[in-house]
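This week, think about what follows.
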Amino acid sequence: MQFEIADGHSYATLEIDFDEGERVGIEPGSMVTRSENVRVETTSGDDGIGGMLKRAVSDEIDVMTTYFIAESDGAHALLAPDYLGDIARVELDGTEGVKVQSGGLLAWSEGVERGTARNEASNFFSSGELTVLKLDGKGSAFISAFGAVRKETVTAEDPLIVDEDHLLAWTDGLSASRQKDSNLTSSLLGGEGFVTKLSGEGSAWVQTRDPMVLFGPSGN
């Protein structure tokens, strides 16, 4: 299976070439094109109805999973995110998971396990999501951003403060805590501004534009 991020940073697309039997998980609605030998399969996850109910009460909106499966060699698909912006590749080596803000995951290869995790603080993001996506296993995942994607290194000696709506993903080795800061742009949306403090050892991916400004209450 081969992946290529194309078409520049502002209007990035993800090209996928895969052979018979290979499959890739995709964000529903992200398909631009696919070859005729790609079969689409949608499932409700491995945990059945009980898992669906659990996700429903935990505010998990991404219940269904869509896969593209190659029925013969030479299969091809083209994906694009909802936002105008970049796509970044995140490699998982099986030793440490990655958490992704809901809506930020575009696609993932075989070997990557996708689940959910509860936010570490109440109403963690201005978007109101109570859960985030949790990626484990070994393989490639692709996250999409509003604007460009920047990867930041976090150390115990140098924690990272992020305006919360710019935080896209972070590794499991980091501890996330929410702090009030009325001086930031988030205060324009909900009357209170908050930042996220990431502590520990790991990496974080941030997006350079705030989708809540365009799609949030003040952007309607």
Residues 48-57 form the longest helix (10 residues).
